[in-house]
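Input sequence (114 aa), recorded before submission:
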Amino acid sequence: MFDAMDELQHRLSVIAEPNRFRIVELLRTGPRSVGAIVDALGMAQPHVSRHLKLLAEAGVVEATRQAQQRIYRLCPEPLRDISAWAQSFTVLWTGRLDRLGDFLDDTDPNGERS
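Predicted structure, token format:
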């Protein structure tokens, strides 16, 4: 089975595929049926179903049945994990931007250090 980092990497790779990324973006606005996803993206239904299956296997989406339709929605927890991972780089960038600010504060308009 996957450990937490392997699972995160797997989810990122699944979402990174352009068509699956488009599906995730579409589901961001709310749950949709397979037919609604097909219509919105202009893809063939078998292709959409295959992408949804991979997203579901990765835990990114879940489906419920409503009569004859399967309604897909995003699963928030895996997306929170991805968001937390991405935000962990904020410390790196904040430190670098602070050093750049200090450098610029110490540099006069002619480009010379004070």
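Checked by second reader. The first strand starts at residue 32 and ends at 33.
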